[in-house]
Amino acid sequence: MIAVDWGTSSLRAYRLDGAGRIRARREAPAGIMTVAAGGFAEVLEAQLGDWIDDTPIVMSGMIGSRQGWLEVPYAECPAGAAEIARGLRPIVWNAGRRRGWIAPGLSCRDAAGVPDVMRGEETQIIGAVADLPAGEATICLPGTHSKWVSWRDGRIVAFATAMTGEVFAVLRRHSILGRLMKEGDDQRDAAAFTAGLRRAEERGGLLHHLFGARTRGLFGDVAEDALPSYLSGVLIGHEIAALAPPAGVVHLIGAPALVALYSEALAAHGCTSRTLDSDCVARGLFLLASHLPTGETNV
Amino acid sequence: MIAVDWGTSSLRAYRLDGAGRIRARREAPAGIMTVAAGGFAEVLEAQLGDWIDDTPIVMSGMIGSRQGWLEVPYAECPAGAAEIARGLRPIVWNAGRRRGWIAPGLSCRDAAGVPDVMRGEETQIIGAVADLPAGEATICLPGTHSKWVSWRDGRIVAFATAMTGEVFAVLRRHSILGRLMKEGDDQRDAAAFTAGLRRAEERGGLLHHLFGARTRGLFGDVAEDALPSYLSGVLIGHEIAALAPPAGVVHLIGAPALVALYSEALAAHGCTSRTLDSDCVARGLFLLASHLPTGETNV
């Protein structure tokens, strides 16, 4: 089968054998934000046309959102592979000659009744936890919108999203904090990141600690080149203080550089971190497809 | 004398009599960001030329910053009117025929050694607290960069800045939260503001509660027109939870609409609020001028 993780900014595709092993992979900056409405089939054919034969195509991510190819309703927590697979929706193109499936996202409501959502991460998690022992686990997928997930007995029971990566980006680009920072790619500064983590543990709250990034820059306490790392430490420190368990193991899924930052932050907070396979989305899509009724996966 | 509060985006000027009473006032959108380097004397003459005779001109605000007319070093906490007045710096123009004074800003370091700064608010506070009884007081100046000030026995002993107003503005304009909000002026929605305040008291932290503004909008829990008020409630609620005292009186200085929001938020937090005169900057400048050595205020 072909597994496609089609997100906002990129498309990652995997060609899998009958046992779910990855035989080939492709990645393109062809995220849904780059595709005009009605243009999804054409982009998919352009990216994967030479792969497509009689194998089923199963997709997850923002491709199932209102801005995607077909809006697929959210499955609801608690949900494991079977419940999420039940929400898969078929999609046909080329006058019915091609057919694929799009996975649902997942929603939950917290104790106060406030909703939260994910699209794509649920499939990564399904794939990533296949190797974990039974019982409970905490999983974190850091990023633009970090996800903190409670896993129990084969199902996602609850989760919470933190806007950490996006808040970093808008403050870096559009606030007074960015004025002290140079344009262009940020250099990592390990000491400044650690100082930011430490600051997040002190009193005053995030909104005060953010202003402190400016004053520390103005007073030369933190070098200008190191300010992005300091800001990142403050934000990740606050995210972890609010959403990580007080101790125990956190399983991380994400890009290696970001996972390394979260590992350090979790260690400072008192947690141990373990890294899960970031290709887990291919395995997740394979597991979801295995729940489709026999015959349904053939075009 | 002439008292000038010259900030980033506007210039407010007052003509005072010998007892410090306001005889006339002017306001112009001639903040320092609109003035080219070297152009400050010209702008001041254009705004106040017909007022200027032999009266001293005393200024406070960002006009004393690196981007202003003359960078005046920060006074340091603890500081009252006498200590701040000691930092006044003279400025001359028109080939020495005109002379004015620029007030210093104020800096402090918290228990962890992290610096904080203000420019202009110290003068407002000096003027506003002239009527307060001796002892301790908490003063809040809400805004783009809200200031929380501890006042004791005639001096500012410490303060903390929260980037609340600016974080609201950049998220409103540049983040995914703004995509659900209409362009143009925001309407106040009292129920949504209160819901945002309540949310700030729940677990999950600010970065999670921000994402919740999006999901509540997506799920129709909060109407799109009401989302800016909800976001404002979440941010102000977090500011107050982190920086307000647990109980007691907080003195507010600021624009009436913003002061009303903070009064509600403080009441929900368990504090009583009292509003101080927002023309206090004129009185503060008058008090600072009264500390200048005799003869020094004449041009």
Explain what the structure shows.
The structure is a homodimer of 299-residue chains. Helices cover 34% and strands 24% of the residues of chain A. In chain A, strand 11 and strand 12 (155-162) form a beta hairpin. The first copy, chain A, is α/β, with parallel strands linked by helices. In chain A, helix 3 (121-128) crosses helix 10 and helix 6 crosses helix 9. In chain A, the strands form three sheets. Chain A has a six-stranded mixed β-sheet with strand order 3-2-1-4-7-6, sandwiched between helices. In chain A, 50% of the residues are buried. The longest helix of chain A is centred in the last third of the chain and has 17 residues, at 227-243. The radius of gyration of chain A is 21 Å and the shape is globular. The N and C termini of chain A lie close together (11 Å). Chains A and B meet through strand 9, strand 12, helix 4, helix 7 and helix 8 of A and strand 9, strand 12, helix 4, helix 7 and helix 8 of B.
* Oligomeric state, counting identical vs distinct chains: homodimer
**Cα radius of gyration of chain A in angstroms:** 21 Å
Major sheet: arrangement of strands of chain A: 3-2-1-4-7-6
What best-fitting shape of chain A do the alpha-carbon axes yield?
A: globular
Helical percent range of chain A? Answer: 25-40%
Low-confidence stretches of chain A: none
Helix count of chain A equals: 10
Largest interface: A-B, 44 and 44 residues
